[in-house]
């Protein structure tokens, strides 16, 4: 008997496998990619005054920033405290954007986080493929 597989279930399984097998470097870049995707979707939904979709995307973006914050080891490097302050600020901005339907706060969050996303991608591209990598709480270091 042939079983038909749901394409959505296949995609979900593929995404889960990609996350579970990702290196810490790749996982960090994936988180930043999704964070900016959520914020872009929230901005588009706010422009269309689709507040429920905007809220859903802002909440997901907040969850990603919360994860990045909770894993950040501020004492591991000189920029740790600054990055934590940025995460705190952006988190507050996203909450305000959601509560007050404030597209400018969403745009501000994008403007602050997009350069970080680019930097993490550039840093990941410079790491040797075989180098052991440690996740120092939202930042990366080569062991």
Task: Describe the 3D structure.
Mean pLDDT is 85; it is low at 130-137 and 139-143. With 143 residues, this protein is mainly alpha-helical. It has a single domain, classed as Four Helix Bundle (Hemerythrin (Met), subunit A) (Up-down Bundle), CATH 1.20.120. A hairpin with a 4-residue loop joins strand 1 (133-135) and strand 2. It has helices at 7-20, 24-47, 51-71, 80-99, 103-126; strands at residues 133-135, 140-142. The chain is globular and about 45 Å long. It is 72% helix and 4% strand. The chain starts with 6 loop residues before the first helix and ends with a strand. It is built from 5 helices and 2 strands. A two-stranded antiparallel sheet has the order 1-2.
What is the H level of CATH, i.e. the homologous superfamily? Flagellar protein FliS
Rg, nearest Å: 17 Å
Biggest sheet layout: 2 strands, antiparallel
Q: What is the H/E order?
A: HHHHHEE
Structural class determined from secondary elements: mainly alpha
Number of contiguous helices:
5
> What proportion of the residues is helical, as a percent range?
over 70%
Low-pLDDT segments? 130-137, 139-143
CATH architecture: Up-down Bundle
Instruction: Using the coordinates above, name the CATH class.
Output: Mainly Alpha
Portion in strands: under 5%
Broad shape: globular
Domain unit count: 1
CATH topology: Four Helix Bundle (Hemerythrin (Met), subunit A)
Total number of β-strand segments? 2
Organism: Cryobacterium tepidiphilum
Keywords: Bacterial flagellum biogenesis, Cell projection, Chaperone, Cilium, Cytoplasm, Flagellum
Subcellular location: Cytoplasm, Cytosol
Pfam families: FliS
């Amino acid at each position: 008997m042939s079983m038909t597989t749901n394409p959505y279930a296949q995609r979900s399984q593929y995404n889960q496998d990609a996350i579970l097998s990702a290196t810490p470097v790749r996982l960090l870049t994936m988180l930043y990619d999704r964070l900016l995707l959520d914020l872009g979707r929230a901005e588009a939904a706010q422009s269309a005054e689709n507040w429920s979709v905007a809220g859903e995307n802002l909440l997901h973006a907040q969850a990603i920033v919360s994860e990045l914050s909770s894993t950040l080891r501020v004492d591991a490097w000189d920029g740790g405290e600054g990055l934590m302050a940025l995460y705190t600020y952006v988190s507050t901005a996203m909450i305000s954007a959601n509560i007050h339907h404030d597209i400018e706060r969403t745009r501000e969050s994008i403007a602050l986080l997009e350069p970080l996303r680019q930097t993490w991608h550039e840093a990941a591209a410079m790491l040797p493929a075989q180098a052991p990598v440690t996740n120092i709480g939202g930042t990366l270091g080569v062991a």
